[in-house]
Amino acid sequence: MSLKNFRTKVELLNSDAMQRALTRLSFEIVEKSEDLNNLCLVGIKTRGVPLAKILADNIYKHSNVRLNVGSLDIKFYRDDLEKLSNDPLLGDKPSLDFDINNKEVVIVDDVLYTGRTVRAAIDAIFDIGRPSKIRLAVLVDRGHRELPIKPDYIGKNVPTSNNELIRVNIEEVDGKTNVEIMERI
Q1: Alpha helices (H) in 129-159, listed in sequence order
Q2: Dmax over Cα atoms in the chain, in whole Å?
């Protein structure tokens, strides 16, 4: 989605608040996991990937268990490609560098909105293997669901209007770290 028709309305989370939310999420994931040695994190490209890495690092710091972290490009599985672009570029078929069969998989994404991205991620995961459980961790849940998708771990719930956009910025992708509410201009 192009941001040229949006402007920053308010900073929702600064870098410190974002780190606190991610630390809390990592503790919640550990608490609800049956076996950390059977747990893996799969980030949805683009910003879900660095968020999954941060969560894995946080989990390692307080549990001394190094989790497998994967990256998932779900463009191939989207049901709304025509809305994204007149000539969408499809991603590669999904693959991970580790086995997810009988594993507890936590899908990580930056913002949960309609639920369509998560549905596509679940489809992609089942094309790779058969996990024992799939859970969902999101930094921001903004509501407006079109599918019956509910996150297991939420950094922040933020009711928004359809004229607003939640923008998660991560240093390695965007040159800054924060979460902003953008409004249509």
Answers
A1: none
A2: 48
| Closest among 144, 154, 146, 152 to 179, alpha carbons compared | 154
What are the tens digits of pLDDT across the range 121-137?
999 999 999 999 999 99
Paired tokens of 88:
């969408």
Q: What's the pLDDT tens digit per position in 73-130?
A: 998 897 765 555 555 555 566 789 999 999 999 999 999 999 999 999 999 999 999 9
Domains (range + CATH), the chain:
15-78+90-162 (3.40.50.2020)
pTM of the complete model: 0.93
CB 41 within 8 A of CB 70: yes
The amino acid present at 21, given as its one-letter code, is A
Distance CA 27, CA 100 (A): 22
